[in-house]
From TrEMBL:
<keyword id="KW-0233">DNA recombination</keyword>
<protein>
    <recommendedName>
        <fullName>Tyr recombinase domain-containing protein</fullName>
    </recommendedName>
</protein>
<keyword id="KW-0229">DNA integration</keyword>
<dbReference type="Pfam" id="PF00589">
    <property type="entry name" value="Phage_integrase"/>
</dbReference>
<dbReference type="GO" id="GO:0003677">
    <property type="term" value="F:DNA binding"/>
</dbReference>
<dbReference type="InterPro" id="IPR013762">
    <property type="entry name" value="Integrase-like_cat_sf"/>
</dbReference>
<dbReference type="Pfam" id="PF14659">
    <property type="entry name" value="Phage_int_SAM_3"/>
</dbReference>
<dbReference type="InterPro" id="IPR002104">
    <property type="entry name" value="Integrase_catalytic"/>
</dbReference>
<dbReference type="InterPro" id="IPR038488">
    <property type="entry name" value="Integrase_DNA-bd_sf"/>
</dbReference>
<feature type="domain" description="Tyr recombinase">
    <location>
        <begin position="203"/>
        <end position="375"/>
    </location>
</feature>
<comment type="similarity">
    <text>Belongs to the 'phage' integrase family.</text>
</comment>
<dbReference type="InterPro" id="IPR011010">
    <property type="entry name" value="DNA_brk_join_enz"/>
</dbReference>
<dbReference type="InterPro" id="IPR004107">
    <property type="entry name" value="Integrase_SAM-like_N"/>
</dbReference>
<dbReference type="InterPro" id="IPR010998">
    <property type="entry name" value="Integrase_recombinase_N"/>
</dbReference>
<keyword id="KW-0238">DNA-binding</keyword>
<dbReference type="GO" id="GO:0006310">
    <property type="term" value="P:DNA recombination"/>
</dbReference>
<dbReference type="InterPro" id="IPR050808">
    <property type="entry name" value="Phage_Integrase"/>
</dbReference>
Amino acid sequence: MRRAETIDLNTINPASVALPPQGERMIHDSEAKGLSLRLRATGARTWVVKEKVGGKTTSRTLGLVALIPLATARHMVAAQPLLPHNDTNVPTSAPLFSPDARIWEVMPHFLAMGETGRWKPSTVRKMRAAAHTHILPLLGLRKVRDLEPEEVARWQMDVAAKSTAVRMALSTLSGLMLYAEDHGLRDPGCNPCRGLRKKQRSKRGQLLPTATVRRLWTALDRLHDAMPNACDAVRLLLLTGARRSEILSLEWDRIIGPRAVLQDSKTGPRTIWLNAPARMILDTRREMITGRYVFPAARMDGPMRVLDHAWSMIRKKAQLGTLRVHDLRHHFASVGVSNGIDLRLVGQLLGHQDIDSTLGYAHLPTAALTKSATRISGRLDRSLRGQHSDTTTRRRTLRTAAVVSSNVAMEAAHG
């Protein structure tokens, strides 16, 4: 076969077509204009669609061949002309769909709506990936109006069994159903995703033992000469509780005294507060690093993007087992809460928008809860003793306070 050709893709098995010895190979579909099968020497087999964005023709990946059938890929391409990307002149009030519209028909319009500025670019990418990987292959041919909660629940279980992106997939499908309600494809208030958890409430992360933190810090010192950028980034993650993306993309102009003011983050604009050790690391780097970014990329103009390989070496050197980089953020939060810092303050340090997110990180030790319960009972006792002078009332108050303290401690011990 030639390097690029046009055939009916239905006449071949995309999973068995020979891969190119190097680079990539494109096979265009003669039946669906703009659809191509892209084969790469690395083994990747993906569907690609050509589309016009801002007057320029670009290529966009639809998803893996193994996950998206050819029929679904053709449907996805056929739906693209209905609403060009970033076309803000199309009236959203116009009837776009028939009453029997299927999920593959509505999804491009829903995603295009978010691309006009409603969602952050990173959110758009994640939702598009979730749609093409988990929603369209399994539910794409279903009529929007026919999707039932039981079916969504089974789909969620299937996705959760093979992917960690189930939360994003469920959020995307839920948003699509709300979009369908707005366009008269479903009755108001009948979202089939309602009641399914998008976010697991569980004990995430851990309070690391002191010995573990010491081994980590020692390993960073020993590996610093070999990979100074990665070691300094890990130090700042541990000292600030910031997200990996926030530290790796940090710019010098954003650092103002004891804080780093981020114009954008996962939850929007926020401040990273820098303690003395963190400022010392940054001051040392400022003397050696030139350019816009605190952690510049090695071979391109921009910030560091990944830390995985370096973290694997650090973890092995410090004997950290399966500890994740994100667990450093959990540890930061747990240390704060365990030492009596108010949850809302911890949430502000972490950049959370609501207290529920902070509760996912706060694992209070039983000893801390018991101590807090004792303090509460003591204050209750002093308060009530000032109002009632008789001995019987004081004894009753003490017994009540003791029960409160005991119950709280028992609840902490059991969960």
